Amino acid sequence: MAAANGSRNGLITPAAFPPPVNPVEEFVGPPTDPEDERIEVGVAIVGGGPAGLACANRLLQLLADDEALTERLGEVPVAVVEKGKVCGAHNLSGAIMRPSAMTELFPDVPPSDWPTYGEVPGEAVYLMLNGKQSVHIPTPPPFKNHGNYVVSVAELSRWLAEKAEEAGAYLLTETSAAKLLVDENKVVGIRSGDKGRGKDGEPLGNFEPGSDVLAKATVLAEGTWGHLTGAAIRAFDLGTDDAQVWALGVKEVWEVPTPLTKVIHTLGWPLRTAAKYKEFGGSWIYPMGEDKVSLGFVAGLDYADVEFSVHDVLQQFKTHPRIRGILEGGKRIAWGAKAIPEGGYWAMPKLTAPGAVICGDAGGMVNVPELKGIHYAMHSGILAAEHIYRQLKASSTDFSSYDDAVHDSVIGKDMFRTRNMKQPFSKGFFVGGAIVNAMVATKGRIPGGHWKTHADKDQPMFRGGRAKRYPKPDGKYTFDKLSSVYITGNETRDDAPNHIRVQKEVPRELAEMWQWMCPAGVYEVPEDAEGDGPVDVIVNYTNCVQCGAITAKGGRLTAPEGGDGPLYQIT
Amino acid sequence: MSNILVYVLHYEGEFNKNSLGAVSEAAKLASELGGEAHAIVVGDDGLTDEFLAGLGKYGATKVFRAKAPEGLAQPVVDAMAKVIDDNGHSYALFGGGLLGFEIGAGLAARKKAGVTMEVTEVKVDNGELVASRPILQDSMISESRYTGDLGVIIGRLNAFEVAERNGASATVEDVDVELSPFSTKAKMVQRGEQRGADVNIEDADVLIAGGRGLGKPEGFEQLDELAAAFGGAVAATRAVVDAGWFPYAGQIGQTGKTVAPKLYLAAGISGAIQHKVGMQNSENIVAINKDSNAPIFEFSDLGIVGDLNKIVPKLTEAVKAKKGS
Amino acid sequence: MKICVLVKEVPDAAVEKRIDPSTGRLDRTGEKNLNPFDTHAIEAAMQIKEGGAVDVDEVVAVTMGPESAVRALHKAVSLGADRSVHLTDEALAGSDVAATGYALAQTLAAEQPDLVLLGQQSDDGECYTIGAVVADHLQMPSLTQVIKIDVSDGNLRCERQAEYGYDTVDIELPAVISVGDAINEPRYPSLKAIMGAKKKPLDTKATGDVEIDVAMVGGDGSQVACGNFHDPPQKEAGQIIEDEDTAETVEKIVAWLDERKLI
């Protein structure tokens, strides 16, 4: 029987404390600007990451040979709306990219001209047994990366943005898309966010309201916690029975004196293997050229221990001799965090609504077992461009053929093949691992069926005593959250409105869970809070790096003022 | 032989502290160079011989007096350019402060000289002056060397120590300056208007800053008393300003003000980097925090691990007593 | 009246700046942005234009910098400038403060402005008051750290923060005014203005177009050389006192302060 404070048997379930937000009511609606003040563009692409920019580039390639349609699309045929200071400022990933989308998008550009750190030089997978030992295991098929490239998505996005701009795209950076414009049940564009509001939302002296941007086609390529995508899924009933679930990745980039010669993935420690903890994830360490490495830790957000903190687990991970050896004598030069959609095939929403399409991570196109998402994002952007182009040419705004195209493409095929590979890990590392091995060996056929996903916020949580194992930051190899946020270049003004929606009064355990969860130190339990009673959680929203974890765990991230947040350079 | 010309700002009968620091510094450097330190003071009839000769105490051997409007930069550029043209000084030195920047920059333009700003240290190398300044948010030092006939060095606020050098009275020499036509196009209507009763925290020599560790807004009352005992001002971290315990005007840090007082006493402040960057150049940093692991203890000059509510009131009494004696 | 606003492109404050270990020079890759202090100057120009006290024919944004500096000009234009001028020339690379000021002054002289506005300092901390340099070359009166401007016919009444408080100064036009960030709250550009920025006229000029003597600019024309970048001296480790007997602790604190002449 659930107690009044939402706990059951001493377990806290975040979903019992929903955030004060109604996405459809708040973020979906008709245009409100007077007609002559509305901005008109041909295609509005929300999100300047790999998916959105691949779409922009492909569209402009097609339009370059089509004067008639280009003219019909008006003065601004392709506009990309990006809430970061520049395209790439909010992009973060491991990452290893399959080359297929780049070669498709830019067949005349040789890989040596791509913004990558070269092909994967070699690989190794380690099972970390404990804080001191590890064992090299044969590379399981999903981790084979021969022929793939090490990249930084922050750099890739900048490169794609430059190409898009050269081709004629309007990059509207520092602009958030706050509202989805829907008229007569069709998406007709987006409304950009206001600027110059104060802490309580009141207009300040330099208040500048957003604008209605009307478009013949709207591409939602917002990434992992799509603000408008979430609202669109609800408004147009695009969701499936399986909830989207997320993992949180925390990443660092290091300058190192000794080059790393292979791509490394690890499983096991510090994650706990027993089923009750539901700790699913692992780490990566990738060489970035001769003098840098990227490393990070990813864990599913359906973990059960209130004290689980991916940032601190990463710091703990770095104390292992094998990892410490790689970083020895080095210097941390970047840090960041981002959520990753992990629901796979079953959790992918329908990808089109009248007048709009969904691309990339926003559509859940991440292949979890194989840790791939960038090329799918780009492929979906390319497909979106091609289908939008074709339909607009025929004066139609019905883009439903795009949905089928995605499922028929390498995206759909790979997502289907790996459709059940995360869920078994809810049975714990070893049972889960065995099940997944079977799936891999049989390309998804055995055991088949439909393993349902369960929303992260529905996961009951308890205090599992994790925190005492987190290392105290030494400022050299291990770091605290605040100094990490500092190097992301986060510069949100102090009197900006709070863009995070959480319930104000929550049980202490929930507040603590958020405090541990958030890699940026946004949530704090007030010092004078006593006992287990309800606390008024402190929200230091100016620290927020917009990773999206809170949306998975009982709160909701909404679009902050354009230009706010991190300025990732090399993540 | 290299002589150094130092601009000395004055107001209501007193020389500016930073200017005196520059004179002291120039005297030290000039002796190493085998030259002299001269001062130049610009103003109207109030500049008596006696007043100016007093600069000898800080090591100036000669003071040039020029009659021109006070408090504006361009007339001083005219004056200094003339003195340098007539006397061949190799360096012009300025103490930190607004006018110093303005005059120094204008002088560099006039004389086609190299100029370095925010200088924290000057040394002699091979018969030449080398000026060092911090760059990249104080993470590195850059050294400037001058080619050409004149080098202009503008110090950072409080960079040069005021030191009496047991010098004899300086001789005073009048300079006849012809002001450039554009130098007369700015007219001082009112100078030095004080606004608001509060001490500007950026100018205060002593800052007592409070953070979350105070526990409650009333915690600032004891800091007010401590600041009063020192004759300093009170400041705050972003966290407590956010919580409404202190006005934004007193916020120190990445998104607030940057200060460099002689003494920064941090009470109940953890010392996260967002705060540190706003006060790390303070000459002396004292921290009181009950958490021995607080990052502030890594860069404080004196750290006290303890309960500020016990320590601050007693410290206030002790400071009052010491000052009273 | 014609107002010219000097703007500068600087590394974004959020980018961690460092010395490139391979070249020993400032690593200038990474995002650049319009110097935040210059946004206050543009806002000041716009407020004068919209204020109605004088007739402003146009606001022109002027910058000196490499090709990427056009972004700063686009931003300036999206904030309200009518057109922009970009001085760019390889000969200018490596210019110090005095050389930069001279080059800008020559560019401005060609425009014949009534008022030149610029930000007090640049965010990269490299220089303060380049306005004073520019004014000297243009032979115009100059004032820095200005936080209030009132315009009337041919004259300005300015307030500025100085060592001893606030000064009120009257200045005859034409003049060069450097503004402090306390002067105003810059506006945000509207989406329409951002989208229209690239269409506004942008003139590119080289040293020859504005009569710049190349001997006076660039690395060779500079009279100061910066180098020998090194770490700042290590601060001595601080002392820590664990408070047990508060009376004793306070005594120690007072002694410590006294030693350093802080009481």
Description:
- The complex is a heterotrimer of chains A (571), B (325) and C (263).
- Chain A has 571 residues and is of the alpha+beta class.
- In chain A, 25% of the residues lie in helices and 24% in strands.
- The N and C termini of chain A lie far apart (45 Å).
- With 325 residues, chain B is of the alpha/beta class.
- Chain B has two domains: 4-184, Rossmann fold (3-Layer(aba) Sandwich); 206-324, TPP-binding domain (Rossmann fold), CATH 3.40.50.1220.
- In chain B, strands 7-11-6-1-4-5-12 form a seven-stranded parallel β-sheet. In chain B, strands 15-14-16-17-18 form a five-stranded parallel β-sheet. Chain B has a three-stranded antiparallel β-sheet with strand order 8-9-10.
- In chain B, a hairpin with a 4-residue loop joins strand 9 (128-135) and strand 10.
- In chain B, helix 3 crosses helix 4 (98-111).
- Chain C has one domain (2-216): Rossmann fold, CATH 3.40.50.
- Chain C is 26% helix and 29% strand.
- In chain C, the strands form two sheets. A nine-stranded mixed β-sheet of chain C has the order 9-8-7-10-6-1-4-5-11, sandwiched between helices. Chain C has a two-stranded antiparallel ribbon with strand order 2-3.
- The radius of gyration of chain C is 22 Å and the shape is globular.
- The mean pLDDT of chain C is 90.
- Classes of the chains: A alpha+beta (571), B alpha/beta (325), C alpha/beta (263).
- The interface between A and B is medium-sized, with 15 and 17 residues.
